[in-house]
Target: Na(+)/H(+) antiporter subunit C
Amino acid sequence: MTINLTMTVVLAVLYSVGFYLIMQRSLMRILIGIVILGHGANLMLQTVGGPPGYPVMIGTAPPEQMADPLPQALALTAIVITFALTTFLLALAYRSWMLLGHDEVQDDIEDRRIMRLERRLAESEESEEELETEATR
Model:
């Protein structure tokens, strides 16, 4: 099996752009990133599936000339998963737009509270260590 350099570069660009968009705070950018990653996954599955061949039906062609049906089945599964994620994220973006007027993902209040608590615990441990080192001098 030969590696197609052009297809490798296209896959790298698709995955890079998709992951970059997923890391954004806007739900629409996240949605576009998921869709681009889905296209990248489908393209990768079809690329690694090998060259085209005859249909997989016994008696129509020798087995070595038949196409591998597994990458095609995996690509159909990836299409369904991408479609499900797309509809879910569209519903989230629509609800966010209707309730808040924008689709930006905000930090959770509980996460902020936990971060403050961890910061206070770390500061108290540092102060205790400083008191212990001063006491031993």
